[in-house]
Amino acid sequence: MDARQRPLSPTTGSEAPPRAGTRRRLQSIRTVLALNGVLTLAALPSCIPTTPIGPPFVLLTVELPAGTAATAGSTPLSTSDDALLDLARAVTSAGVERLPGAPFSLRLPGSALTFPERLTLEEYETAAYLTQAEFDEPSGLLQGFFHLHDLDSFVAADSPDPLETAIEGTRRFVTEKLPRPMEDPPFVWLHLDLSEDANPMARLEAARAVALEALAPAPIWMLAELRLDAEGESALVLTRESGSVELPNLPLEPAGLGALLFQELGLPEPEPAAEPQSSAEPQSSAEPQSSPEVDQ
Q: How far is it, in rounded angstroms, from Cα 178 to Cα 182?
């Protein structure tokens, strides 16, 4: 007889029931497994966060016709006269450059650490919905965004109104993320080019209302609205669940804006971004001129 086979019962011919000691051991194992299951289920609520890791955050940037951005005063965005370049540097990285002599020439080197990448390190899930043609994926300005939606993507999808498509995409992304407490909080950059819109302020108010409605179910949240116009005026409005404050004529400085937003979000202040480096390195006059070969 196989040593692993139980002896047959002499009366029924079937396998004999396990001995009492074996039954007690099996019962003890079942009891231990049941207790472990109860303890695991009891611990689950404490493992699931009831609030997001950080507040859900929408950054709404808007280009408006001249004279409509700020509500008080009039000061330039920065020392340059290129508002889009200043905005790109403030929202993404100080490393953004404009290549001379070509339209749609904003470029960001892949080595730069961007604002959305810093938010990703703070466990945010990032998305961008942009209707400015210069803020496109080939420029590198969307580096660090997990979900990318530029003007080219809206045109390719035959969107009848890219502005409305971008606003609706923002609403959908935020509302789909908020009911899931174990997921990363959302960060959305929504940029609307309203510089030639027939009724820009009405469109802006509608976009703001959609963003606020999407954020409202969260216990804490933030909407940062940055307005700029063709004359170089700007204004930043920060709206929280507890109220709003306007900062007119905010200089668009990359380190300043990033530090301010991180402070308002309750996150550690990011390290200052390095200034753009020139690709050409000066040669020492003491050394002879090198040959065109590059050492490997």
A: 10
Q: How far is CA 180 from the centre of its chain?
A: 16
135: exposed, middle or buried (C-beta count within 10 Å: 0-12, 13-18, 19+)? buried
| CB distance 193 to 132 below 8 Å | yes
How far is the C-alpha of 79 from the C-alpha of 100, rounded, in Å?
18
CA–CA separation, 185 and 56 (whole Å): 5
List, as own/partner pairs, every contact residues 146-151 make where C-beta atoms lie below 8 angstroms and the sequence separation is at least 24, other chains included: 146/120, 147/173
| Residue 282 confidence class, pLDDT cut points 50, 70, 90 | very low
Residue 187 CA to residue 122 CA, distance in Å, equals 11
Q: Which of 46, 29, 26, 48 is nearest to 37 (CA)?
A: 29
Phi, psi of 236 (to 5 degrees): -115, 125
Burial 244-276 (b: 16+ CB within 10 A, else e): eeeebbbebbbeebbebbbeebebeebeebeee
Per-residue HEC secondary structure of 204-254 comes to HHHHHHHHHHHHCCCCCCEEEEEEEECCCCEEEEEEECCEEEEEECCCCCH
pLDDT per position as a tens digit, 52-83: 467 999 999 998 887 666 554 444 444 456 77
CA-to-CA distance for 66 and 56, rounded, in angstroms? 31
106 strand-pairing partners = 98
